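so my prof wants the structure for this chain in the tokens format not the other one, which i didnt know existed until like an hour ago. anyway here's the sequence
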Amino acid sequence: MQDRSDAPHRLDATGADQHAANERLRARGPVVPVVLPGDVAAVAVTRHEELKEFLAHPEVAKNARHFTALREGAVPPGWPLATFATVEGMTTADGDDHRRLRGLVTQVLTPRRVEELRPRVEELTDRLLDALGRAASYGAAGVVDLREHFALPLPMAVISELLGVDPDLRDGLHQLSTLIVSTTTTPERALAVNRDMADILDLVVARRRAAPGDDLTSALLAARAEDSDRLTDRELTGTLLLMVVAGHETTLNLITNAVRALCAHPEQLELVRTGKADWADVVEETLRYDSPVSFFPFRYPTRDLTIGGTVVPRGTPVLASYTAAGRDERAYGPDAARFDITRRPAARHLSFGHGPHYCLGAPLARLEATTALRALYTRYPDLELAVPDHDLPPHPSFVGNSAEVLPVRLRP
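here's what i got, hopefully its the right format
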């Protein structure tokens, strides 16, 4: 019923079988009507070229004032996806506001600053690998959840140190950000999650105001003290929320998906071992083949807009389907569904976005993922999945894209 050409596709909130569903959606066209939780109508852009055009289109906005159904009160209270639409920050800002907010972060998250983080990322990686071995030694038959013990704590530690988040707050931030990304969160729980997240971020701000450091939060507070018009309190909190969620959830999924793909394609791992490819190739192909983000909300046409021959009415919420576009045969050839780290050109994918909202954290994510994979396979070159790949449960979300757990046998 969902795949009839005249029926909107109801997105599966559990995140199950995303690639199979994406294949059917691409076959229907580059722009497909979908139904979101709460029976909210939207569309998804599913093909590479059309998505690239849409992401950079000058008449596409991010501010929720353009979201017709939300403005007219047709979106139910406690809607699980409301945070993506209503948080105040650079992801929901347009024009001068977007440039102002993005500029504040860009001043701190410079290429030089990212490169200066390399020794710290390497140090954290080595510590986590030591702990991973100890966790495996206590597990049944040497099995350990690589996602929980390695792919998660590395980006969480890095983004927390970058933002000035103290260690006692990090577990809470991760748990709450996972619930924000989840599309199975109930309305009642969603409201509580947003309150709890705001409380923790307020505490982060209070601590850095009392004891400034060499971190992004302190830098933003200094900019606000210098000129309060440059950054409101809600924009400060919204910026931190964006950085916490995007700064670790996506890299967590990227590392998880890369290890999963290499376990399923040992011939690709052999290419790295023999010097025919490198870890950067693994990262770029994982971003294309199994993007950490699937259907990312939201953008809104500011007028009726024709994309790929389909008219998208003004004010319609549009999702960018990075996982669908990443396997578009029109862009990547008939073998688009194959994991191939020698694929060229490299980094052609859209998984970090395109246009004015291109991900500021892309260099940091690449640094963390390449460092993590190189060190992991140096320490444990023969690691393998401890369960069949098809038995890995999906993360319960159509926004994020990954397995919820990744049990591996290290075999040092």
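also thought this was worth mentioning. Residues 233-264 form the longest helix (32 residues).
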